[in-house]
Amino acid sequence: xxxxxxxxxxxxxxxxxxxxxxxxxxxxxxxxxxxxxxxxxxxxxxxxxxxxxxxxxxxxxxxxxxxxxxxxxxxxxxxxxxxxxxxxxxxxxxxxxxxxxxxxxxxxxxxxxxxxxxxxxxxxxx
Length: 126
Known about the structure:
Distance between the termini: 42 Å
Number of strands: 0
Number of helices: 5
Helix content: over 70%
Largest sheet: none
Radius of gyration: 20 Å
Structural class: mainly alpha
Strand content: under 5%
Shape: elongated
Number of domains: 1
């Protein structure tokens, strides 16, 4: 008879721990849909001369808008918002620098920048 309460407590602990660790991304912010973000096609023009650079610029614009919205909704502190904003801005600047130096952004560089932006999106969308 004593085993039933212990078993129930163990199962309750297991389910509550699984629920706490199984956080999902917020789906109401555009930057939170990572599959859609990875398939974005940005527009070229002005300083944007490469299709992959345009993709990174478009993702950066969306993420920075989401960071601003999260800050206004008080889901992020001012310090967090600034940290993520600067990180996205660094990705944008780096991709622009590569295009100026090389004339294009390679597929490997785009993949690396996408991973960096995915990390930011995951952090702000929780």
